[in-house]
TrEMBL record:
A GO cellular-component term linked to this record: cytosol
The keyword Hydrolase is assigned to this record: yes
Name of the protein in its database record: HAD-superfamily hydrolase, subfamily IIB
Molecular functions (GO terms): magnesium ion binding; phosphatase activity
Family annotation (InterPro entries): Cof (IPR000150), HAD-like_sf (IPR036412), HAD-SF_hydro_IIB (IPR006379), HAD_sf (IPR023214)
Protein keywords: Hydrolase
């Protein structure tokens, strides 16, 4: 096996434990990998505005943050935009209309060249899951200055947004995701992130060419790193393409059963048992 030169880390359910924190052992393993010359990339379904605090906390301001499931890559400290694949406006309008027909409330992620903006529609606060998500995002970022409420998202979107998301129960989001994928086939990519224990799911609607795998491939190419030298760690369906791209793919002990059962993926401990650190120690630190 070739030495690992690039380590791609998912955040929620992977690097972060069930309390949303990073363990001391995970911190030490990442720091030691960096000391040995391994590049780090954070690859997350989170919006950039929600992922940025994690990068800054870990002093990873010089690494690429591949956010929005691959639709936007930026540097945390400088806010330099490395790459963006926005959702075409016409497709975005179609997504909003279908969501409205299904009684779902949308969140729009915007401002690809700044710190990020979360936009929702007046009245959407009545959606318990969406309100909970917005409250969580405010806590993570520490401000509500970049959360905006508008009277109509369709009127607001006179441009291409970064992406659109819906939040709700697993069954409801599963049905909506299937309809969006069916009726807008080829025009959008529907990325699902499910947390069955909480009966909570996120649907991210992004540019059809965007994915965590495509974002990771672009970063590897920029650094001149072969995919055989890339290691990726994840836990959910939105990590699948990233895991398929990497030469060494590791899934968490708390990952979805379909991922844990994939024969080509290595299994580590859960996010509450330092699974990321154990994988780094096994495939990077001990391997050297």
């Amino acid at each position: 096996m070739m030495p690992i030169r690039l380590l791609a880390l998912d955040l929620d359910g992977t690097l972060l434990d069930s309390r949303g924190e990073i363990s001391a052992r995970n911190r030490r393993a990442i720091a030691e990998a960096r000391r040995r010359g391994v590049r780090i990339a954070l690859v997350t379904g989170r919006r950039f505005r929600d992922a940025r605090p994690i990068a800054l906390e870990l002093d990873l301001d010089d690494v690429p943050v591949i956010a929005h499931n691959g639709a936007l890559t930026k540097h945390a400290l400088t806010l330099e935009t490395v790459a963006v694949r926005p959702l075409p406006r016409e497709a975005a309008h179609a997504v909003l209309r279908l969501g409205r027909e299904c009684g779902a409330h949308a969140m729009v992620s915007d401002d690809p060249h700044g710190a990020g903006l979360l936009v929702h529609e007046r009245g959407s606060e009545r959606n318990e899951e969406l309100a909970r998500y917005i409250a969580w995002s405010r806590r993570v970022v520490g401000t509500d200055a970049d959360v905006r409420c508008v009277s109509s998202l369709i009127e607001y979107l006179d441009h291409d947004p970064v992406h659109i998301a819906f939040a709700g129960g697993c069954a409801t989001m599963g049905d909506l995701g299937a309809r969006l994928a069916r009726e807008l086939k080829g025009r959008v990519r529907v990325v699902r992130t499910f947390y069955p224990k909480k009966d909570f799911a996120l649907l991210d609607i992004i540019n059809p060419e965007a994915s965590k795998g495509a974002g990771l491939a672009a970063v590897a190419a920029e650094y001149g790193i072969a995919r055989e030298e890339v290691m990726a760690i994840g836990d959910n369906f939105n990590d699948l393409e990233m895991l398929q791209f990497a030469g060494t793919s590791v899934v968490m002990g708390n990952a979805e059963p379909e991922l844990r059962g994939a024969s080509r993926f290595h299994l580590t401990a859960s996010n509450d048992e330092d699974g990321v650190a154990l994988a780094i120690e096994k495939f990077i630190l001990r391997a050297e």
